[in-house]
Design a protein that fits this description.
The protein is an alpha/beta fold. The chain contains 20 helices and 17 strands. The strands form three sheets. Strands 1, 2, 3, 4, 5, 6, 7 and 8 form an eight-stranded mixed beta sheet that branches. Strands 9, 10, 11, 13, 15, 16 and 17 form a seven-stranded mixed beta sheet that branches.
Length: 530
Amino acid sequence: MTLTSDLDTRSAEFAAARDTSLRQLAALDEELAKARAGGGPKYVERHRGRGKLLARERIELLLDRDAPFLELSPLAGWGSDYPVGGSIVTGIGVVSGVECVVVANDPTVRGGASNPWTVRKAFRADDIALENRLPLVNLVESGGADLPSQAEIFVPGGRLFRDLTRLSAAGIPTLALVFGNSTAGGAYVPGMSDHVVMVRGRSKVFLGGPPLVKMATGEDADDESLGGAHMHATVSGLADHLAADERDALRLGRRIVARLNWRKAGPGPTEQPDEPRHDPEELLGIAGGDPRVPFDPREVLARVVDGSRFDEHKPAYGTSLVTGWASIHGHPVGVLANARGVLFGAEAQKAAQFIQLANQTDTPLVFLQNTTGYMVGTAYEQAGIIRDGALMINAVSNSRVPHLTVVLGASYGAGNYGMCGRAYDPRFLFSWPGARSAVMGPAQLAGVLSIVARQAAAARGQAYDEAGDAAMRAAVEQQIEAQSLAFAMSGRLYDDGVIDPRDTRTVLGLCLSAVHSSSWSGTRGYGVFR
């Protein structure tokens, strides 16, 4: 059926929600600008003065003309002591007609050195490349570990090299285009990549630079003989291609990808990818207001799925969860979307059955989160809400079709788990700017702490400090609100990015295209359902 819309775009509620969305997007733009600014004007100009391209300029020249680039984890490190972005740019783009994961060091941020958020962001990019069978292209210029934070990097950082070998072993090509330093542990990035391009007079790849060699062995060595591009292309054999300059290196990288003879393993789009019948611009007025106020997810679907077509499953049962079939950019999907926040037993049972149906037909699932969690209370506990919630979480956990999750509003409690939050390994997870995620809402959490403290005081026979209670509740609410913000969650890499609601269809389409680079088959048998 074709979805209709009851959205009143002339209402005060719509206008207020839209204004809130625009303010949130303005704040998002400010944070993304910090990531794009790299190390700041001083270091950007110094980098340009050396005749070098910036990380995003390298990516742009690597990608096909006018090809989209789905940047991943751009807010990594937000709220930490490290620069926003993690001193690295990652994302998915099309190179010579092939969708690839691209990882580019930003040498304007402490010489491209890796901090704790750099490695976490790189790990996420590697996971996406492996799970979705996407070639990995590293654009390398890094001084190695950011030494003041080496204690947080050294041990986990070794996984970066392990990932390269596992990708290659899985038949997924890996490329390293080296534009400058790739030293110490970083030397293993080209050392473990399938294809290596170095730039004459620019690339320097060695385990230990001249000062370290002098201290360790007493040998006096120069950069070029120790690890220069020409030496590696003619003597050590580490470089497969010697580029004249950066643009030539990117040209060579594009030619390598063109010669991979790479084919997608997934079934690809099979439906008509026509535009929704309702204006995506109106998404700004749907979920930009109070996250505690529910909204009808069909209004979102009407502005995201192909032709606004949605065949709903069990529409009259478990009505606070909407389930059904649609397509996005021609890719068939099953959708699970929260309608009124709370998940009851019927909703959990409905979800489990729907997930099984999707697995029977190998159909990817899209989860649209706006949930306060599973219902609590004596009647619901006695009716088996734990059993029913476990049923849904079991189904999500053991589903083998690709999962894509978008957090539209609230994502609280075990509802985050049942609706395929980060811990349940969706292929991709994005958030709208007004999204919130925590164990429960700030007011509820503060209230629980207040009740516990009040009961403890009564048990000790002490008078309760009401003024202190009010101060405690206010402080806790403020803390939880700050920690549950979309920016804070994205900064910890609990999603793959905060997106403009109007881009939801495009982002999901790009993700579905990437997913279809791999093959899959759904789960045909599950474990024990209570």
